[in-house]
Write a structure and sequence with these properties.
rod-shaped; alpha+beta; five-stranded antiparallel β-sheet
Length: 182
């Protein structure tokens, strides 16, 4: 007579082995998923920074292309390198572009431009979003140079933009424009 021995379950060692393997696979999969979410978030932040930085460069470049009489020494509230005084050809007004910070909102920096500097400009237009979900601008600088012979003026604009509230993701922006000065 032949007796067949059937097993209707798993041994404890087999169960522990399967649980261990599943734990390792889950841990690796979770780590990959977290990395993907962090990369996606970083890409979104960098996209917002680039969008704001490109907008600032476009507006400032267009404004300065149609201007003349540039001066960096007449900016009493900010350092001369981060402020530019100029006269617009479009409306013949004296205007200013500078860097300021929002002390009540993570001390984020923003670029602003305004007419007729009176020591404390009350009416200005911010070129960047200075809220907590916007971007922060720092190290704005203007470099004025002329061509050999002085017939053409060039202005180099450069600044750094980063995520607000002391974030680490950021980008640098630089543009050199030739001033038309009709």
């Amino acid at each position: 007579m032949i007796i067949k021995n059937f097993h209707n379950g798993f041994t404890l060692i087999e169960m522990l082995l399967v649980v261990g393997i599943l734990s390792v696979v889950t841990l690796i999969g979770g780590d990959i998923l977290i990395t993907v979410f962090k990369s996606y978030n970083k890409a979104n932040i960098l996209s917002e920074i680039r969008k704001n930085g490109d907008f600032v460069l476009a507006v400032v470049s267009d404004e300065l292309k149609h201007s003349f009489s540039f001066d960096q020494a007449d900016c009493s509230l900010t350092s001369p390198k981060s402020c530019l005084k100029y006269r617009s050809i479009r409306d013949s007004k004296t205007k200013f572009i500078d860097l300021d910070s929002d002390a009540g909102n993570c001390n984020n920096g923003f670029v602003r431009y305004y007419d007729d500097y009176a020591g404390n400009p009350l009416s200005f237009s911010s070129l960047t979003n200075s809220k907590k979900d916007g971007v922060s601008i720092d190290e704005l600088s203007f470099t004025i140079s002329t061509s050999f012979g002085g017939s053409v003026t060039y202005i180099t604009i450069s600044f750094n933009a980063k995520e607000p509230c002391g974030g680490v993701v950021g980008a640098s922006f630089t543009n050199t424009i030739e001033v038309r000065g009709y």
